[in-house]
Amino acid sequence: MNHKYRYDGRCFGGGIGGGYSWILGKRINVEMEVGVGAGYADYDKCGWKSNSRNYGNERGFRIFPAKFDVSFNYLF
Asked: Which of 29, 37, 53, 55 falls between 20 and 30 A from 72, CA-CA?
């Protein structure tokens, strides 16, 4: 664990995903799911101790991949 910095602030985010299933045979399916997320962060980067110096403020909006899933299913 890195105890060099701490981050004070807030972060908000959310995401959405979707998928599809392909029937390959009477008992075999393939499913795929993808998701994307977005978040906003506003925080101060400080030293680990409570009275240490402030290294600056970071703020920004990011979009990131949240999930990628491929499954092969056999139905009994």
From this structure: 37
Domain count, the chain: 1
Give mean pLDDT, residues 56-71: 93
The 10 Å Cβ neighbour count of residue 24 is: 10
Angle at 11 between CA 2 and CA 43, to 5 degrees: 60
CA 43 to CA 51: how far, in whole Å? 17
- Segments forming the whole domain that contains residue 37: 5-74
What's the CA angle centered on 63, arms 5 and 13, to 5 degrees? 70
In single-letter form, the type of residue at position 67 comes to K
